[in-house]
Write a structure and sequence with these properties.
mainly alpha, about 150 residues, 5 helices
Length: about 150
Amino acid sequence: MYYHDPYATYYREQPKTGSIRKLANDLLNGMKGEATAIHFYTQLMQLAKTNEEKLYISHALKDEQAHLQQFVHLYISLFGAQPVYQAESKTFSSFAKGLKIAREDEFEAYEQYRNTYLSTHDQHIRDVFFRAMTDEIEHALRFSILALEQARS
C-alpha cells in the first residue's frame, strides 16, 4: 500500500526552518485571533437589538468557529502536536464601539491571512487561509454596514 503525505511538498518547498516557524506562528496567531473573536462576538451578540444585527454577528461567529477548527486541524496535521494559544479579552463600552473594534479586527485579520496565503505555494494551506481571508473581509463589510446604521439611528 502506498501512502501519500499531502504536506511533503510543503516541506520540500519551504527549505528554510524560519519559513516553517513563521507558518507555525501565523497559525497560532490566527487561532488566538479567532478564539478572541469568538469570545468577543458572543459578548457583542448580547447587545444586538435588531434581527439584522443578530444575524450578522451570528454569521461572523459561526465563520470564526470554523476558521479556528480549520487552523487547529492544519496545525496538528503539519506539526503533529496540539497548539497552545489563549484568547484575549476585548472591552467596549457600547454596541457602536464594539462594532468599530470588530470591523478593525476583521481588517487586520484579513491582512494577516492574505500575507500568509501569499507566502506559501502549498494548495491546502492556501485554501485554508483563502477561506479565512475572504470571510474576514466579508465580516468587516457587514460590521461597517451595522456601524453606519447605528450612526444614523
